[in-house]
Amino acid sequence: MTRRMSAVLILWLSALLWWALLQLGAVMAHNAPGGWSYDLECCSTMDCAPVPEAAVREAAGGYSVRVEPGQHPMVTGSAVTGFIAHGDSRIRVSGDSDRHVCISPSGRLLCIYVPPGGA
């Protein structure tokens, strides 16, 4: 096999591997308890869960978030708090009438899902 053929084969196999990894990532997004899928950009296959209504409140200019320990699987120490302004891409529409929050294992607020129509 020539050096050029080897390089082409390596490029082709690399492209195939990247395609397979992308397909695997799309399959690994997880579902809300109601059966609809969280967005992969938010959930990393495990980071999203429903929260009590009081955990995500509409406020002037956006949403105020406060998730206490025990209200979300990723919140085990202190509460996770944050504010997400209207228009931020981290605000998603919930597939049900519940609020859902995506929190990384390090405690970073990733996304929120609010019922259709907001609040």
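That was protein one. Protein two is written in the same sequence-then-structure order:
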Amino acid sequence: MDRGRFPASAEAGADRRSLSAGADGWTLRYDNRGGDWMAYGYRARDRYLSVSASLPWEICAGPIAGVVCGVLLGLEGRTLLHGAALKLGHSAFALIGASGHGKSTLAAALVREGAALLTEDLLVSAPSPGGWIVEPGGPSLHLLEDSYAALGEPSGAAAPKVRDGKFAIDVPAAGAGQEPLAAIYVLDPPGADTEARFNRLTRARALMRVLDHLYGAPWIRPRSEGDLRFCSDLVAQVPVYALSRPWRLDRVAETAAMLRRHSAP
């Protein structure tokens, strides 16, 4: 991996993310308002990733297990979901939803309930002879200040680092192997529910909800026929539930406890 400087012809922008891709590879670049930048370049012919930046390596390394892998897999045609996956017992379940719908906060509360975090933000799943599985990813949580203040650090977690206004918390890995996917929970947007509610979705409704939460669509690549087939096969074999719950931080532990009971075999 090359940690040299990005070519001088690449000027810093205002505050943006840009992705350029072609047959030879791709470049993902971030610029912030302060003039700092990070760039990840992938050379397809020898599968070589270079990292260049004006920022310290500790900051640049953070996105590699998440968004950088998401770009690599997405441009190779893999269907990815935007969500977290946690392990309870001998199986896993997924939380998917739009940005700001509380996936990370609920995942952190579930870790405090005894669940093991498999991956956050980038969710990679695949069919197997025994059913669908989840691939382990980067075991870290990214919480806004109010969520971190309400939940603190899960047991065994490292001290957090503040990145992009969020507390980045590395938690103990659940293991290096694939885990069977037992259920998917789609987080409903904020509402007035007084307690957590789980609604099993029909296959047609589940398909539409899961398709709404593809990782990187459309900025990595637009949704494709392959994505439709993937999600159709997924919801045909894995139960999908809509999860609505109280939109209050002092109730998130209650929701996590109910979800743990609901997902129990």
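The chain has a mean pLDDT of 88. Keep this in mind for the problem set.
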